[in-house]
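Next up, a chain.

===
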Amino acid sequence: MKEKILTIVSTILLFVPWTILPLRSFDWALKSPVAEIMISCYAVFMILGGMFTVFLYVRAKVQNNWMKVCLVINCLYAVGGACALGMMVTQK
């Protein structure tokens, strides 16, 4: 039961970063301070989501097939979030 709940949490973490797309359709989300803050928050969330999924896979031993898929996708999100933060830091 614990493994199923943790897998569901990891699955939810797959879809949260995609919520930035509807938010970015508003004019206020494209202006400088709001856009930077929003992208930074999403990038940090993606990095933490990737670390959480790695923790579940390694420490909690949740190693079913769907968790492997979540692990790969959330790690890709984490790398993308780290790149986004890196680009924001080096730009300033």
Remarks:
- Residues 8 and 42 are 20 Å apart (CA to CA).
- The mean pLDDT is 95.
- The chain has four helices and no strands.
